[in-house]
Amino acid sequence: MKGAFTLEISTVIGLVMGLISVFVGMILKGAPLSAMNNPAAFLIIIGGTFSCLFIAFKMDQLKTFPKLVGMTFKKPPVHEKAALLQLFVELSQIARREGILALESKVQEIEDPFFRTGLGMVIDGMDPDFVGDVLDAELSVMQERHATGRLMLSQAGTYAPTLGVLGAVVGLIAALGNLNDVDKLGHAIAAAFIATILGIFSAYVIYLPLANKLKLLSEEEVSEKRMIIEGILSLQAGDSPTAIEAKLMVFIPQSQRDALKGGE
Q1: CA separation for the pair 130, 213 (Å, rounded)
Q2: Helix residue ranges per DSSP H, 99-240
Q3: Across-strand partners of 75?
Q4: What is the pLDDT of residues 124-178, one digit of tens each?
Q5: Neighbour-count burial of 195, counting CB atoms closer than 10 A to its CB (0-12 exposed, 13-18 middle, 19+ buried)
Q6: Are 134 and 198 contacting, i.e. CB atoms less than 8 angstroms apart?
Q7: Phi and psi for 222 in degrees, rounded to 5?
Q8: Helix (H) or strand (E) segment spanning residue 74
Q9: pTM of the entire structure?
Q10: CB atoms within 10 A of CB 164
């Protein structure tokens, strides 16, 4: 039912293009790349951003940060909706022919715990309203968890530019100590703005875009789960395979619907 993790190539392309755009732009503007060798700026921006995150979030939430970033580089294995639709049609055919209890042998073949739990409750003869409430509650909890993960990245994108300004101010304070030496003064002022560059770059090329990518991945998974809920409740209601196919077809994009009908 599920495929393997695949590389989310758009994330890689975006980050590479972002780095190239900044560094090539610096060269074209005549700014030396050696100016980026500024450990103090990196400490203020990176260290400062994560210190803000540690203050703003709980430790259990922060432990998931590396996993969240990794998810934006790997597309999670989800059901192909066309295959999911076909599976529900097959399950409905079995249920109408042999009864709902005949689906018990199919439960263990399903890898998705959400799908397996819902189908198991239907087989156990639980009330349809109860089944729907349980699955909706589980979906809501999942959405809240996803929202918290996105919030960490979006908050990092909020903190970083402000810390960039802070780093620039610190650098300018240091520059004021070299007013009598024009060469040192110019170098110090240039170094002061490296923190601003890092703050803006990390926010608008890394943190905020990654937060948006997580939002898109979450919406994709939520759509899949809603399709599963609709299919399970339709099985429990004893809908015909044709009716189930019509209900679940709304979750499939129009272009894929045309391809499915052509294949049939």
Answers
A1: 33
A2: 104-107, 113-123, 128-175, 182-192, 194-201, 208-237
A3: 6
A4: 889 989 999 999 999 999 999 999 999 999 999 999 999 999 999 988 888 887 7
A5: buried
A6: no
A7: -65, -40
A8: strand 74-75
A9: 0.83
A10: 26
